[in-house]
Amino acid sequence: MTGENRKLQEIAEQYAAAWSSGDPDAVVSFYALDGQICINRGDDLIGRDAVRDMAAGFCAEFPDLKLTCDFVRRAGDHAIFAWTLEGHHVETRNYVKVGGWEEWELNEDLKVKSSLGWFDAVDYARQIAGDG
Predict the structure, then answer these.
(1) How far is CA 98 from the centre of its chain?
(2) How do the domains of the chain map onto residue ranges?
(3) For range 54-59, the mean pLDDT
(4) Is 22 in contact with 63 (CB distance < 8 Å)?
(5) Alpha-carbon 49 to chain mean position
(6) What top-level class would CATH report for the domain 3-129?
(7) What distance in Å separates the CA atoms of residue 76 and residue 65, rounded to the nearest whole number?
(8) Using CA atoms, how far apart are residues 40 and 38, in angstroms rounded to an integer?
(9) CB under 8 Å to 91, separation ≥6 — which residues?
(10) Which of 20, 24, 41, 121 could form a disulfide with 56 if both were Cys (CB 3.0 to 4.6 A apart)?
(11) Which pLDDT score, from 0 to 100, does residue 132 have?
């Protein structure tokens, strides 16, 4: 593994740990000041405040949220961060385990400028509801 790839692997593992900490500020620290995220073709969440609000929502929904880095791959200033989310939903108390990924565009400091996030929203909702 090259030095650059090793550094990205460390960042990906730290990003997963930030999510697992339940601290939205820790999550947003991995984003550029003008960073943005779009999840499952939803609205573009632009800027650190919007990213923080999104992270806070997930952390509130899953107080015991654990995010695992499954793998990360890089090509120039683009990367794929594959993850698994696990936790108990705050309202239903149902255990949820869902995988997904983020397609990152990185700046020169390896901060996320843009992220396109993907996960199976139907399966996610089914698990929250406890169906099947």
Answers:
(1) 12
(2) 3-129
(3) 96
(4) yes
(5) 15
(6) alpha beta
(7) 31
(8) 7
(9) none
(10) 24
(11) 59
The model's confidence at residue 41, banded by pLDDT at 50, 70 and 90, is very high
- Residue 90, amino acid: V
Report yes or no: 61 and 53 within 8 Å, Cβ to Cβ. no
Query: Which tokens belong to 5?
Result: 């790839």
Quick check: 57 and 90 in contact, CB under 8 A? no
Residue with structure tokens 């090509």?
A: 75
Average pLDDT over residues 92-116: 97
| Distance in angstroms (rounded) separating the CA atoms of residues 29 and 50 | 13
Among the listed residues 34, 31, 3, the one whose alpha carbon sits nearest the alpha carbon of residue 117 = 31
